[in-house]
Specification:
This protein is α/β, with parallel strands linked by helices. The protein folds into 2 domains: 187 residues, HUPs (Rossmann fold); 94 residues, no CATH class. The strands form 2 sheets. It has a 6-stranded parallel sheet with strand order 6-3-2-1-7-8, covered by helices on one side.
């Protein structure tokens, strides 16, 4: 679908999108992470709400305990703004730790630990909730809606960051999504902004922002690669984690003690999280050894199932041996079409099923903590941080 040029700039267009929602009488909530995109969304919502006389602006943030220093400091400052109705939530949910093969999940403000063992303490204003899935924190129960009106969740999604996000925007027909299972529509007011637009808006308007970005820039991280998210979610967080360990040594000591494996990755990078093939073995042999024979039980079981199902699928289309290095993208194999690629993916088990969801289910919290109460045993939907 070709791009359509608007007659106004993206800044004014975003404000107009939000103003229409406020003028229609809908309940508008900004999902806030203290990242640059959600920061801009909050400031735009404040402008739109001021112009439509709908202040204060509802803001919701889920506390993830471990984020780059500067993140929750910005959150604390934001709670002090008189034009913001801030909801600071703590779910105690599991978050993936790709740096630990034995225990891939860690629990936010884990109730099995003493509070002084946490990396930081939640603020006194924080509200503890039961919902494990992040999509459930904005709901009509928490944010009542007038009859005939809708609940709108404002998110800082930008299509520049992902082709899938662009496709999703086209499929929904615009910056508003359809109503989800929780009775909420998502609003993406800055979907057409570029990274430069975000920083220009912050600079030109003198908006407060997360100081972690300054640290990342000083350490040479490209602006487009700067992310504010739990640093243990993906292998892509290894670079960010290494920078944080150098810049914040006291914080790093707490994180390393709380999350085993993080210090090794901070020192050795992604190489510490990939299978190493011996000189006398094939990639098939490497897969068998590193992902099954020597792997933790939960990884070995998943790696066996994925291997068996993938080979059956491949055999339906080809009599040749399964490729060693160069992947085959045909026959519905996606990016898993070689032993080397398969070893790279399954070495960490892929508990969130970012690559192997076609063959095995994602790991539920109860799989690693049988003692969890019933309402916290499962994600309640596809796991998302």
């Amino acid at each position: 679908m070709p791009k359509r040029t608007l007659s106004i700039n993206v800044f004014d267009a975003a404000i107009e999108r939000l103003k229409r929602l406020y003028e229609a009488g809908h309940t508008v909530v900004v999902s806030y992470s203290a990242g640059k995109d959600s920061t801009v969304c909050l400031e735009l919502a404040l402008l739109a709400a001021t112009q439509t006389k709908r202040l204060p602006v509802y803001v919701v943030m889920r506390d993830e305990e471990i984020m780059l220093p500067g993140t929750y400091e910005l959150g604390e400052r934001t709670t002090q703004r008189p034009d913001v109705d801030f909801h600071w939530l703590v779910a105690g949910q599991p978050i993936i730790n790709v740096f630990n093969r034995k225990q891939p999940y860690w629990w936010v403000f884990d109730d099995r630990l003493k509070p002084d063992e946490w990396v930081r303490q939640p603020p006194d204003k924080a509200q503890w909730i039961d919902e494990q899935n992040i999509k459930a924190i904005v709901s009509p129960k928490r944010f009542p809606v007038k009859q005939g009106k809708e609940l709108i969740d404002v998110v800082g999604l930008r299509t520049e960051e992902s082709p899938n996000r662009l496709l999703g925007l086209h499929s929904s027909g615009g910056y508003l999504t359809k109503v989800d299972r929780y009775g909420v529509r998502k609003c993406r007011p800055i979907y057409d902004w570029r990274t430069g637009d975000v920083w220009k808006a912050i600079h030109d308007n003198g908006w407060d922002y997360n100081s972690a970005y300054d640290v990342m820039q000083r350490h040479g991280i490209n602006k487009r690669n700067m992310r504010i998210s739990p640093p243990t979610l993906t292998l892509a967080g290894a670079e960010e984690l290494a920078v944080a360990f150098r810049a914040f040594p006291t914080w790093a000591d707490k994180v390393a003690q709380r999350l085993p494996g993080t210090r090794a990755v901070a020192h050795f990078g992604k190489a510490a999280l990939r299978p190493i093939r011996r000189s006398d073995e094939t990639w098939e042999g490497c897969y068998q050894r590193t992902c099954i024979d020597e792997a933790p039980d939960w990884i070995a079981k998943r790696a066996t199932v994925v291997r068996d199902k993938l080979l059956v699928q491949y055999a339906r289309h080809s009599a040749k041996p399964f490729p060693e290095i160069k992947p085959i993208h045909a026959h519905g194999l996606g990016l898993l079409g070689s032993w080397k690629v398969l070893a790279d993916v399954m070495y960490l088990g892929d508990p969130f099923c970012q690559k192997v969801g076609k063959y095995v289910p994602y790991m539920e919290p109860v799989d690693f903590r049988p003692d969890l109460p019933a309402h916290r045993q499962r994600w309640g939907g596809k796991p998302q941080w």
